[in-house]
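REQUEST FORM: STRUCTURE PREDICTION
Request ID: SP-0412
Submitted by: Lab K.M.
Chain count: 1
Length (residues): 423
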Amino acid sequence: MSLSRLRCAIRYDLVKVCQSSALVAKFGPCIGREVSTSSTRCAVAQQNTKPDWNRAVSEAEKIVGYPTSFLSLRWVLSDEIANVALHLRKLVGSNHPLLKTAKNLLYNGKNNMQAWGLIVLLVSKAAGHSPEIPDMEQDKAAGVLHSQRALAEVAEMIRTSHLVHKGLVNMNVRQVLAGEPDDMLFGNKIALLSGDYLLANSCTELANLRNQELVELMSSAVRDLVEAEFLGDRDQQNNPLPSRPLPEEQREAVSEWDCILSPLPMSGVEGCARREWAARHVLAAGALLGKSCSAALKLAGHKPALQTQGYLFGCHLALAWQAFLDLEAFTGPEPSSFSLVGAPLAFTLEARPELYSYIEAGKKSVHDVDYHALYEAVLAGDGIARTQALQREHSGRAREVLDCFPYCDARTALANIIVAMNP
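STATUS: Completed
RESULT:
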């Protein structure tokens, strides 16, 4: 079989798996398993604003030369991923979280993780590079360095491996019905091995760059991803729960977040809705994107001050992105469930602490929470308006950082992506 036919066959397998899982979730859920319709409604919400986002991403990809995702060629042609695609077919109908992650990898949308590498490359091109960089290390057609492109792939692989690993199901608390095939255990094996494969590949690519400071910086981003999984309370399936809101006089003193390599200080986070939301998503997303942008500027020979601005840009962009995703659940039909650590609910709980009793009902499982009551409470309060203001704030701060870069098509593309994220 030729390489082109092999590539098409592998991608066909992945797409068919994702399409089959979507059809099963929509029309034929298995008996004894919960199937959420929130992903279907979220997809409808995304389609309403999809053209602007797709246009911004498509134009940005032309600026840096070609589609940036590691999924496009080398990843799809690897034997390991070909095996994963074949095994994924066995999970159709099991509602394992790995299927949803695979679908998000292939289908476009505002929560598409493939845009992360693109943002790193756009920052790289917008800032330019030192004239001391040898010609052999430059991709003159795209306007970036070969090492920066490799770094963008590393950032995507780290993020994807983290999301795949988050899809593991806690088998200790899951009750398997008699005679039921335990697809969840098989799905866990595939999720664990495929996530490890991506993480190992990212470490290899990072080591090939032969830059000790870069390895230290990106390693601290992986540490932040892990710390995010231990922030606050969790149910038995490790789904995050917000902390109980505290009066302002009972909160700890706030520590400044002015460090890049050091762990994020947690004083003043618990009980403060805005700071807890920011800390959770800086650790889970913003730190990786920000440190990837900072590392790209380091590779280009820029001064530490500009590297810090790159880190801030990535953090603010990730937080604006997260605020948009949090708002999606409250801009269309009422979903069956939504994020309990999203900004709209966090602000609502801070204004009405008595609602935290609904959160306590989900200590065992988030499915025990009365989502309808919380949804109505969010709509009745100012949580949505405060989240919209939060998104505008972080979008504005990201645009302010762009002023540090010279005016060029890459800087314009980054500005367009920020605009496309806003409702």
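NOTES: The CA atoms of residues 273 and 346 lie 5 Å apart.
Reviewed by: T.R.
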